[in-house]
């Protein structure tokens, strides 16, 4: 197969798969809301906290997320996602007027988070269009031939050994087998063990699958074999967002458990600092308003006293004039 044929087939496959998902309304993950509560009011709009089941981790990347509320679909233009909190909650802000009026009365069961993952398929198509020419199809084998290792508890069968021999003697190979025939726990795991134990093998090995769950199921099978054979799980690094099961058992190998989780924590901390600054700014504004009001009151009080003094002087002058007029009248009589 030529490189150009491979690129064209990859682009066409992604295009066909996207069209299939679109036509059959597939490629979406639904996540129910466990609880909803008012978090705060910000910029005149209410901010709500949506909490999700602990076994449903919310990825930091919110691309493709939308909501179904009482059967109506809403995008992030209508219900803005302000922050992902620790992978188990969202801070959301109703933007649409009809949502602002009803959101405070909603119950958890009224809201459903929809994560539309079709954009990942579109990303594959776009990637091959932009970077496909950088791919190089292997023409020779750079790995040493497979050999059985003694310090493994589960020895591959003859058929599995043939599959392993093929993987290390041909540039591209395809291994097929019915469920339970040992494709993951035996063939893949032993292939990876062979690469790790042959110290002169350079480079990295990518293990991928169509979905996050499929990747992690594969890794869990491989990691169990690694543990049985005394190999460190740190030989594996899980890129992207893991499932809750893998993250719970092997957080030390997960990218999300490291950098991305720290970023999420920093975002949450920055959000709390922003709230504190807004609170202080509000308190400062109140103090300034009170001082201005106090100043106005003092000025009014001073003016009132001045007016009263002026009025008193006028009254005294008027009384004096009346007294003089009375004296003058008596003199004439």
**Average pLDDT metric:** 84
Major sheet description: 4 strands, antiparallel
The helix content, as a percent range, equals 40-55%
- The Cα radius of gyration reads 37 Å
Provide the low-confidence segments as ranges. Answer: none
Number of DSSP helical runs: 8
Order of helices and strands: HEEEEEEEHEHHHHHH
Global structural class:
alpha+beta
Question: Per the principal axes of the C-alpha atoms, what is the gross shape?
Answer: elongated
Number of strands: 8
- Strand portion, in percent? 5-15%
For the biggest β-sheet, the strand order reads 1-8-4-5
Instruction: Give the end-to-end Cα distance, rounded to a whole number of Å.
Output: 140 Å
Helix and strand topology:
Blueprint: H1 3-23, E1 28-32, E2 35-42, E3 45-51, E4 65-69, E5 72-74, E6 79-85, E7 89-94, H2 97-102, E8 111-116, H3 118-131, H4 158-167, H5 183-197, H6 212-228, H7 244-249, H8 256-332
Antiparallel strand pairs: 1-8, 2-3, 3-7, 4-5, 4-8, 6-7
Could you please describe the fold and organization of this structure?
The chain has a four-stranded antiparallel beta sheet, with no helix packed on it. A four-stranded antiparallel beta sheet has the order 2-3-7-6. The radius of gyration is 37 Å and the shape is elongated. The protein has helices spanning 3-23, 97-102, 118-131, 158-167, 183-197, 212-228, 244-249, 256-332; strands spanning 28-32, 35-42, 45-51, 65-69, 72-74, 79-85, 89-94, 111-116. The chain is an alpha+beta fold. The termini are far apart. Helix content is 50%, strand content 14%. α1 packs antiparallel against α3 (118-131) and α5 crosses α6 (212-228).
